[in-house]
Write a structure and sequence with these properties.
mainly alpha, 2 strands, two-stranded antiparallel sheet
């Protein structure tokens, strides 16, 4: 079983790296999103008082996360009863859908390629597809910053976290994690609309990413060393700046990348015309350049491969995954 567990994790990672999320293939996140919208509508039709809405907010993670886990488990059990190979194939595909290595790499490289051609409007538009901030008037250094921050932050929830939960509980737990992340992206906002309904989803996402984020910070320091970047500064920046980030988790990958590259992330961002300041990550040793995007993507790839190596060590260490 140890060999199968290792094979499934590596096969899922490679499958995502090769094909990513083709638009013609139905993606589980779409189903999760539609379910979240239906349940939210149902709750709002019956609940309006803020306190009751806050209590009802607990229903979203229970139904969406619990439902994703149970449906995936039941599907795999049914396929296993037909033939074990069907279950193995489905497990690989399902875990691959929870990972977004290729999507993250492609999104970063699209911005880089536009900058490399000197096409700022196209670069702004490409960045606007992956961030929530206003990008219409950003100049190249700020476009680079937005891209580096997004790629760095998503190393956790797009790669390490789903692999971490796949290691522990196979495709069912990886799919449950993806449901947690989808909930947070849809309702986990601290605005008037979701401050009550989305609080439980946001807290659950913070808890789910707590360990993977800190593992990612360590992996990025080691990756910096392997890539002959400044791994010592990467480690120091994590220790000094990670806690300054408004997210309890995002500061770890962002500060690690900032330290490794010798750049400063954070600063002013504009959201729908409102200016917001985010704490600085790293030191301003030099201006950011488009090459920092490619360096961040390389750090992402090396860190993800290192985590897969750790998965092999963990599987051999305890004699198989908990789901084998």
């Amino acid at each position: 079983m140890m060999g199968w567990a290792i094979f499934i994790l590596w096969a899922a990672y490679i499958l995502d790296l090769i094909i990513g999320d083709p638009r013609w293939l139905p993606h589980p996140v779409i189903g999760m999103g539609n379910s979240i919208k239906r349940i939210e509508k149902m709750i709002r039709n019956h609940v309006s008082h803020p306190e009751n809405l806050k209590k009802a907010g607990i229903l979203l993670p229970i139904m969406i996360v619990g439902g994703s886990l149970l449906i995936t488990w039941a599907l795999l059990r049914g396929l296993y009863m037909i033939h074990p190979w069907l279950a193995v194939g489905a497990e690989i595909v399902l875990i691959a859908t929870t990972i977004a290595t290729k999507g993250l790499k492609d999104a970063g490289m699209e911005v880089y390629n536009h900058l490399d051609r000197g096409d700022l409007p196209a670069a702004r538009q490409a960045l606007g597809m992956i961030v929530g901030r206003d990008t219409d008037h950003l100049e190249e250094p700020e476009i680079v910053r937005g891209t580096v921050e997004t790629v760095a932050e998503n190393i956790v929830d797009a790669i390490v976290s789903p692999l971490f939960y796949a290691l522990i509980g196979g495709a069912p737990l990886a799919m449950a994690y993806r449901a947690v992340n989808t909930l947070d992206s849809m309702v986990g906002y601290k605005n008037d609309k979701y401050i009550n309904l989305g609080w439980a989803s946001a807290r659950l996402d913070d808890a789910a990413n707590f360990i993977p984020a800190r593992i990612t910070g360590v992996l990025l320091v080691v990756s910096s060393w392997l890539m002959r970047l400044d791994y010592k500064r990467s480690y120091r920046t994590i220790r000094h700046d990670a806690r300054l980030h408004p997210s309890p988790n995002s500061g770890f990958p962002e500060s690690a990348v900032a330290g490794a590259l010798g750049i400063r992330l954070g600063g002013e961002n504009t959201y729908h015309g409102d200016v917001s300041f985010r704490a600085y990550m790293g030191e301003f040793l030099r201006p950011m350049a488009k090459g920092d995007i490619k360096s961040t993507i390389r750090l992402m790839l090396v860190a993800s491969l290192l985590f897969l190596v750790l998965c092999i060590i963990a599987i051999w260490g305890w004699g198989g995954t908990l789901w084998s």
